[in-house]
Design a protein that fits this description.
- The chain has 277 residues and is mainly α.
- 65% of the residues lie in helices and 1% in strands.
- It has 13 helices and 2 strands, in the order ααββααααααααααα.
Length: 277
């Protein structure tokens, strides 16, 4: 256990150390001899005094990139949650022709990584942008739509959780006068809160630092997410390791905050769902 904790903690400590060293070097002692805040001033967008005393602001904007990533992650996580909860309800509670084939099709499509569809994704949103620019390339909303489309595994997990809840509970609500929508929204969803927290957290984490799809859809500096923007800190000849380390630590803060909020239902949710076919 001690070795495992050390393996998890050591990279984080090294990253903090690099962000506090003067200069952009990835080698040195774990505890810096001299503490420098230049990398954090860059990451937070704070000015540095110039030779004549005038403030010089960083040419790259890390905080706006992080804000774009957080907005996209929250929007795609909520949209994915809406699609997966309603889709899983249809598979778990409703009867319709082709139900098993549709569920199998979702699982088969989920087996192929999104990287295989990068060219198609770019072509599709380029054409959409010609008709409706807010959903074209270089738009955060197009990124939200792409991230929200991979809900097959989410549907499968939530479906298993729904099926572990006795259907008689919803039938009792119906007898008391609830509509099917009210039984779903007021009875089933509150009972499925643990697995919903897990799905939200997984979708949020996946969208926050996703790179391949974002790199082909986003182009302008103001719309870049943090994962794409951080690429500008690296080059073939030099890498700004200190700036990169400070930005990487900032990128972990939203995940940490969301995890702290959702941790109560996380453990029970991870052990639930997927128990029935």
């Amino acid at each position: 256990m001690i070795v495992l904790c050390a393996m998890v903690t050591l990279p984080f400590l090294v990253t903090i150390s690099i962000s506090l060293r003067p200069g952009n070097f990835n080698e040195g002692s774990l505890i810096p001899r001299t503490i420098s805040w230049e990398h954090w001033r860059f990451a937070l967008g704070l000015p540095e005094p110039g030779p004549d005393g005038t403030p010089i602001y960083p040419d790259l904007t890390v905080l706006p990139w992080l804000w774009n990533s957080v907005r996209v992650a929250f929007a795609s996580a909520f949209l994915s949650l809406f699609l997966s909860t309603t889709g899983a309800y249809a598979f778990a509670r409703m009867r319709f022709a082709g139900k098993k084939a549709a569920l199998l099709g979702l699982m088969v499509m989920q087996m192929f990584p999104s990287v295989l569809g990068l060219v198609a994704i770019h072509c599709i949103f380029t054409r959409i942008g010609n008709v409706f620019p807010p959903l074209g390339t270089d738009s955060l909303w197009s990124l939200v739509l792409v991230y929200s489309s991979g809900v097959a595994m989410d549907i499968y997990l939530i479906k298993g959780f729904y099926e572990s809840i006795p259907v008689e509970i919803e039938e009792a609500a119906t007898v008391d006068g609830a509509t099917p929508w009210q039984a779903f929204y007021l009875v089933l969803l509150p009972m499925a809160r643990p697995i919903l927290m897990v799905i939200f957290l997984l979708e949020f984490m996946g969208a926050l630092m996703e790179y391949p799809v974002a790199s082909i859809l986003l182009h302008s500096q103001r719309n870049l997410t943090l994962a794409v923007g951080m690429e500008s800190l690296t080059s073939e000849y030099a890498t700004k390791w200190g700036h990169f380390a400070a930005a990487a630590i900032l990128a972990g803060l939203p995940i940490t905050l969301v995890f702290m909020v959702a941790q109560r239902g996380l453990v029970s949710g991870l052990t639930s769902g997927g128990t029935k076919g």
